[in-house]
Amino acid sequence: MREKREKFVFFVIFFVVLVHVLPLFADSTASSDLRALPDLSSTDLSATDSSNGSRLQQANKATNNEANNQALLNVPKKSAEEVVEKSFTVVLDPGHPSENGNGCTGFGLKEFEINFEIAVEVKKILEQQPNIKVLFTKNEVNELVKNIQRAEIANNARADLLFRIHCDSGSGSGYALYYPDSQGTKDGKTGPSAEVIYKSRQAVEKIHSGIFSVLEGKLRDNGIKTDRQTFIGKKQGALTGSIFSQVPLVTIEMIFLSSKNDADFIRSLEGKKLMSQAIASGILHTALSEKSAR
Fold first, then answer.
1. What was the pLDDT predicted at 7?
2. Are 247 and 159 in contact (CB under 8 A)?
3. How far is Cα of residue 11 from the mean position of the Cα atoms in its chain?
4. Could you tell me the residue ranges of all domains in the chain?
5. Which residues pair with 249 in a beta bridge?
6. CA distances from 133 to 96, 184, 190 (A)
7. Are the C-beta atoms of residues 280 and 132 closer than 8 Å to each other?
8. Mapped to the 3 state alphabet, what secondary structure does the chain carry?
9. pLDDT at res. 71
C-alpha cells in the first residue's frame, strides 16, 4: 500500500513539472528563433543579396526596355500583329531637291539631307512588320524629283499612304502635320478627289496621335493643319503633290531649321531616333485603322 502511494506521489510531481516547465522551454526556443529572423521592415532588400539584386535589376531593366520600345511605337503587341495581317503600302517621300530647290537650311543643316536620313530610319522600323511595304520617291539623297513625279510614284504603286517628309523655316518651332482639305489647281490639273481628301483627313488624325505619343514633352506640337496654310497651298488651293495624288497623303514639317533648339534636336542621335520612331508610330496607327476598315 505504501509503495502504491509513493508511486502516485511521484507521478503527481512529474505531471506538475511537465505542465509548468515545458511551456517555459517552448517560449525560450521560440524567442531564440524569432531573434534569428531579420527585421525586414527596416532592411534594404537590394542590399541583402548583391548578386540576386544585380540579376533582379538586369531583369527589370530588360523588361523596362521592352516596355519603352513598345511605348515608343504606342502599338500594343496584339495590335501590332493585327496591323500586318493584310498588306499596307506606304510611299515615303523625303522632300527636296525638287522644282522648288533644295529646301531650307539652318545652323549647318540642310533640309534635303535631314529629310532623307529620317526617311531611311523610318523605313527600317516599318519593315520590321512583314506585311508593310515601304517605297521611296527617290534613291539618292541629292536626287532631284519633281513634286508631280513624287505623286505619280505613289499613284502607280497604288499606295495606301503617301507620307511626305519636310522641315520648315520661319519664326516658329516644333512639328506640324498637313493634309489637303480642298482641291487646288496646278498646270491645268484640279485635285485631289473628294475621296482622297476624306481619307487624308482620317489618316492625318491617326498619324498625329501616334507621333504625339512619342514626341510629347520632347518637341512642340503644332497640331494638324491644311495645305492651304502653307505658302504654295495658299496660292494653289493645295500643295502640288496633293493636287496630283490619287492616294491619301500627309505631309510632316518635322522641325523649324531656323530654330536653334529644333536644329540641335534633329542633329542629335537621340533626336533623330525619336523623330523616326514617332513617324513610324504614326504610320502604324493609320495602317491599323486602314486594315480595320477593309
1. 53
2. yes
3. 83
4. 1-33, 79-293
5. 162
6. 22, 29, 29
7. no
8. CHHHHHHHHHHHHHHHHHHHHHHHHHHHHHHHHHHHCCCHHHCCHHHHCHHHHHHHHHHHHHHHHHHHHHHHHCCCHHHHHHHCCCCEEEEEEECCCECCECCCEECCEEHHHHHHHHHHHHHHHHCCCCCEEEEECCCCCCCCCCHHHHHHHHHHCCCCEEEEEEEECCCCCCEEEEECCCCEEECCEEECCHHHHHHHHHHHHHHHHHHHHHHCCCCCEEEEEEHHHCHHHHHHCCCHHHHCCCCCEEEEEEEECCCHHHHHHHHCHHHHHHHHHHHHHHHHHHHHHHHHHC
9. 42
Q: CB of 164 within 8 A of CB of 241?
A: yes
Distance CA 118, CA 154 (A): 19
pTM above threshold 0.70: yes
CATH 3.30.390.10 is held by the domain 79-293 = no
Query: Cell 513634286 belongs to which residue?
Result: 147
Amino acid at 152: E
Contact present, 227 and 179 (Cβ < 8 Å): yes
Residue-level pLDDT at 21:
44
CA dist 149 and 138 (Å) reads 10
Amino acid at the residue 13: I
Amino acid letter for position 204: V
**What is the C-alpha to C-alpha distance for residues 279 and 33, in angstroms, rounded to an integer?**
61
**pLDDT value at residue 214:** 98
Start-to-end CA distance of the chain, whole Å, equals 107
- Closest alpha carbon to 260 in 106, 140, 110: 106
Kindly state the cell numbers that stand for 250.
Answer: 500627309
pLDDT in tens, 122-171: 999 999 998 999 999 999 999 999 999 999 999 999 999 999 999 999 99
